[in-house]
Structure formats: C-alpha cells, structure tokens
C-alpha cells in the first residue's frame, strides 16, 4: 500500500560546535603587519598620512607587486607581506591561502550554507554568525535567477530585498566593533575585519552545457549604502572595468569606502598574479598612468550553539500529514535510515567550508533517538544503478518509521558545475517511490540540497525546458515562450512557491487595528501594526512576510515583491505584535523595462503572509 510521504527539506549543513576550539582563523602570519612601520614613519600620525607616506616611498615595481592577493611586502620600509584572500561564507573557510588550520587550531565551527541560513528569515541570526583573518571575501550576494545554477548554496536566494537584508546583517556582524558606536567618517571607523561583497554586476551561470560566464546587472546599492562594506568583488566579466560602474556608480552614487577586487585584471586588487606581473609594463607603455597606481595603493592601506540554531531555523517543513512530525519516541521504537545522505560528512558543509571540529551525520543523530536499521539505497550520490534499492525496501518493511535522506552534493551542483535538470539524480526518485510503497510506518523524506520558509521557488522539472540559462530577461517573453524568472515574474505552476513553509503549530494573523478602505499617503513613511496569534498548545516561531503588489495595468511590473519580513517567537496560546514600517518610494516602486525605477500612482495592494491579510494604499503625488 502506498504511504503518504512527509517532506522535510534541509540545506547543506554541519552542526559542529567548537566548544574547545576558538572560532578564529590562524593569523600568526598577519601579526607583524604594522610592527616595523615606526622605523619609516611615526606611528602617531593619522592612518591617512601614514598610508600616503608609505605609498610615496615605494617604487613603481614595489607598488604593482602589492596588487595581487599575495602582496609580497616591501621589507626595506618595514611593510611585511600580506595575503588578502580569506573566505568566510558560512564560517572560517579553508578556501583561500590567507587562512589555515594546524595542530594549534585544527578546526572551527561550520555554520549552515547561506541559502540554508536565509531560509530561517531571521535577520539577527546572520549578524550574530558574522561576529566570529582580517580580510574575508564574503558574503556572496548574487541574486539567483535560475534553479540550475551551481552556486545557489552560497547565495541568499532569489529576492533582492531578502538578499540585501541578509547580506547587510552579515557584513555588520563581520566588520562592526561592538561598543565603538556610530561614526560619520567611514574612512576612519574601527573595523574588526574587512568584509567583501561579491559580486558587483553579478552573474549566475557556471559552465552550463559548456558555456562560460554570462552575466546580468543586479542592484547592490542596499548593501553598500546601509552597511558600508570595505571591499566589493566584481563578477567575471570585462564590463566591470567600465569607469561609469567603477567611479560614477559604486564610488560616486553609492559612496563605497574601501577597495574593489576582481578575479580579472584592471581593478584595485587582483585575485591572482596578472596585475603584479603585467601592470608595470602597462605603465611603461603609457597605457596606465602611475598616478592611478598611487590611488589604487592608497585604498587598501587605509582600511557553538549558534550553528545548531541556524541549522534548525533554516530547515523547511513542506508536508506533515496527520501531524506525524515531530516523531514520538514512545511510538517509534526502531527507525529505518536510508539514502545516500544518511551518513554524509563533507557533503553537509557545502563549498567554501573550513575544517569542522567534528561531524554529526544524520545517522549519528537519529541513532540517539532509538534503534536504527541503516541502508545506503544508492552506492553514491549520483545513484547510477538500483542494486541497493531492494535491501532498503527490506529495511523499511521492518521499521516503525522510515527516514529517507536524498539530494545533491558538490559532485552534482557546484561552482563551475551547473545542473542540466531539476530532478533528483539517477535512481534516487525510484528509491523513494519503491521504499514508500512497502514501508510499514510513515515515511519522512529529507532532501539535502542547496535549496532550502523557501528563499527560492521550486519549479516543476519542465521549467528548464522552456528557457536556456543564457537567456537574460527576468520578465516573460511570449514570442520566445520564456515563462519569466523568480516569483516576481513567473506565474506558472510550481512544486512549492517562494516563501513556502509549514510549522509544527498554527498561527493566526490580523491587523492590530482595522485598515482604512484606502490609505492615502504622500511618498512618506507609513507604519502598520500586525497581531500574530498562536492558536495551539506548542510554542513556535513564525515568519511574517509582507509583499506589495503594484496597481493593475502597469506594463512590465512584477507580480509582487517582498518589502518586509520578521521571524517572531510566540508562546503557546499567546499573541505578539509585529510592527512594519514602509517607505513608499522604496517599497512601492518598480523597475520598468528600461531599467529605470519608477513609482506608479494608483492603488497598491499590501499583503501579509499568504494573502490572508490585505489592505490597499492609494498613492497620490499631490502635496
């Protein structure tokens, strides 16, 4: 008899708390950075004057040798070598030569991947994780347009507002020195570490069907303006060297206080050796002015339980038939644990990870719950044959409950490895179906993937047949049969929509005071208070999401967009007030087909949650 399958989706994660190991990268090779500078210039002068003095003392050859990620230093003036490249996408990473582990510090806490943490929709959680090396090339703030992209796990999802909120909190957590207060002079502010936001101008294709980088322009203004990162990493394309993007936009309009980094040449700092190897010759040939080198050199010179909580909050519950979850240990004495992810270790931490102090696999955790019958079901993640399905079926017949752990790993989806379809690999789907047919008890399906309430739309598998990854439009293109991208423009069938997720308990929503039939505003801020009522006997957390919908008939407008969200804990049987404040110019504007932001007058709809609460805002330009 076929069994109903309960679906719980988890992103890559490793719950590894470093109780006895400091959450620090190995920084001994950085500690001499300013040690010998007093022999060249007095230490009591300002950072700005000291930086200028050092640059003035350096030869052209010495300067260009500092413009790769491996800055070799200038011993004659007391400037030591420095490695700019360290990574911290979700904890201190072993990727990048600026960070390393040894016997003294063998590992560090590995937090869940960015897409998983974003699924918690907890603003403060990301900032707390960031408070954990001196220059970290994190976070990745690319907006996901296509579900096949290999780097989804690194990103905060498909909504620009959610991405900006997530990344702003992470950068503040990395950079801010607690107790230092606010400073108007961003060039002289104290920094704990230097965060790097990647990638300016953005991209979201990695060798799809052998095709190299394709890119589109995505907005980074929210992050640069609100939290002032010290570094911005550019995308893999030549247009990043456009003076209008470099000078007019990010340094001028957005007022970047820091330096720009590229994995291709022609910016402040090169991730590689192209600039150190070639730039001096470019100056000699008159292609680059030496004064530009002076400017570039000046900018860089001036500048354990939490992991478990993040993993827990980022898990997304999709189905819970008959309220089977959470499992009652009194009813389920033995559990079948089946699937290629059942005993995963390295696959749990995703890419750009460090060295976890220890791994707790799903099998380890479930074994503490009761008696376990373990079967792999697949020989590897790609599940190339069905030879191990029969033993898995036999295990499911004997168990009171069956946990199926399937999904992806970095052999299927990664940097420089995009997916060609949206299906589970190999025979994994067959494994699920055949085990579900014979299971004696309920089946809990756990999908470990880069996609985690959901920061991404789950499209049906036929979606990828409608458009190639190399198509740039976000909006539908009827003449080509393109259906549009992301929840903002796609209105076709989905497996699960953006923002979807269930709870073990239930919540009711209502406005704290009745909304007027039409709320008249004049481009100013408006506050709306919302009551969140808990109607069940269990404590719980709910994510309250607020969307705006533009007036009907606006050509090229999005269907809706996120303008606010909050994760709220509510005790059983209690009620909490959630207050949202919206700026009309920011929350109700749209980007038209010519890429200009416009503010349509007329009646806008504001919806809370899945649309159960709705009120209207009439925008007037009369003052």
TrEMBL record:
GO terms of molecular function: alpha-L-arabinofuranosidase activity; xylan 1,4-beta-xylosidase activity
Lineage top rank: taxon: Eukaryota
Keyword terms: Signal
Coiled-coil residues: none
One of the GO biological process terms: xylan catabolic process
Short name of one Pfam family: Fn3-like
Signal peptide segment: 1-18
Domain Fibronectin type III-like: 542-612
PANTHER family: BETA-D-XYLOSIDASE 5-RELATED, SUGAR HYDROLASE-RELATED
Name of the protein described by the UniProt record: Fibronectin type III-like domain-containing protein
Organism, as annotated: Populus tomentosa
């Amino acid at each position: 008899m076929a069994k109903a399958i309960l679906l719980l989706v988890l992103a890559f994660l490793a719950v590894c708390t470093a109780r006895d190991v400091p959450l620090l990268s190995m920084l001994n090779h950085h500690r001499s950075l300013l040690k010998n500078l007093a022999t060249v210039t007095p230490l009591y002068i300002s950072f700005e004057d000291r930086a200028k003095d050092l640059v003035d003392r350096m030869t052209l050859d010495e300067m260009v040798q500092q413009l790769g990620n491996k800055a070799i230093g200038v011993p004659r003036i007391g400037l030591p070598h420095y490695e700019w490249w360290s990574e911290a996408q979700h904890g201190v990473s072993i990727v990048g030569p600026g960070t390393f582990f040894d016997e003294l510090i063998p590992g560090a806490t590995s937090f869940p991947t960015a897409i998983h943490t974003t699924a918690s929709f907890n603003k403060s959680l990301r900032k707390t994780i960031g408070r954990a090396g001196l220059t970290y090339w994190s976070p990745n703030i690319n907006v996901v347009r296509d579900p096949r992209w290999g780097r989804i796990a690194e990103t905060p999802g498909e909504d620009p507002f959610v991405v900006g909120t997530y990344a702003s909190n992470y950068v503040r957590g990395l950079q801010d020195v607690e107790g230092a207060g606010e400073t108007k002079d961003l060039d002289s502010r104290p920094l704990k570490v230097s965060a790097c936001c990647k990638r300016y101008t953005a991209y979201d294709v990695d060798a799809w069907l052998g095709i190299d980088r394709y890119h589109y322009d995505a907005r980074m203004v929210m992050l640069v303006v609100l939290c002032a990162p010290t570094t911005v990493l550019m995308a893999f394309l030549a247009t990043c060297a456009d003076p209008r993007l470099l000078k007019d936009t990010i340094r001028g309009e957005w007022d970047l206080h820091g330096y720009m980094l590229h994995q291709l040449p022609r910016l402040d700092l090169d991730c590689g050796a192209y600039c150190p190897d070639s730039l001096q010759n470019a100056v000699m040939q008159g292609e680059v002015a030496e004064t530009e080198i002076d400017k570039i050199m000046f900018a860089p010179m001036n500048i354990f339980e939490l992991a478990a909580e993040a993993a827990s909050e980022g898990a997304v519950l999709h189905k819970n038939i008959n309220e089977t979850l959470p499992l009652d240990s009194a009813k389920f004495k033995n559990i079948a644990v089946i699937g290629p992810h059942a005993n995963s270790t390295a696959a749990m931490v995703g890419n750009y990870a460090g060295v976890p102090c220890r791994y707790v696999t799903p099998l380890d955790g479930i074994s503490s719950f009761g008696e376990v019958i373990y079967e792999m079901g697949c020989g590897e993640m790609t599940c190339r044959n069905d030879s191990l399905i029969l033993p898995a079926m036999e295990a499911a017949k004997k168990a009171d409950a069956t946990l199926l752990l399937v999904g992806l790993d970095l052999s299927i989806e990664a940097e420089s490895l995009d997916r060609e379809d949206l299906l589970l690999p190999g025979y994994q789907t067959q494994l699920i179906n055949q085990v579900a047919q014979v299971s004696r008890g309920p089946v809990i399906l756990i999908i470990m993937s880069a996609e985690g309430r959901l920061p991404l739309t789950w499209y049906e598998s036929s979606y990828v047949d409608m458009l190639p990854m190399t198509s740039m439009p976000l909006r539908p293109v009827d003449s080509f049969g393109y259906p549009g991208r992301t929840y903002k423009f796609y209105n076709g069938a989905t497996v699960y929509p953006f923002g979807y997720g269930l709870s073990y308990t239930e919540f009711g929503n209502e406005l704290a005071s009745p909304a007027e039939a039409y709320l008249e505003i004049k481009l100013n801020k408006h506050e709306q208070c919302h009551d969140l009522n808990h109607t069940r006997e269990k404590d719980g957390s709910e994510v309250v999401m607020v969307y705006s919908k533009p007036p009907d008939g606006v050509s090229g407008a999005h269907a809706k967009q996120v303008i606010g969200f909050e994760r709220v804990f509510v005790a059983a049987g209690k009620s909490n007030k959630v207050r949202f404040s919206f700026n009309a110019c920011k929350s109700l504007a749209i980007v038209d087909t010519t890429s200009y932001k416009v503010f349509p007058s007329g009646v806008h709809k504001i919806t809370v949650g899945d649309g159960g609460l709705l009120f209207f805002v009439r925008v007037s330009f009369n003052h």
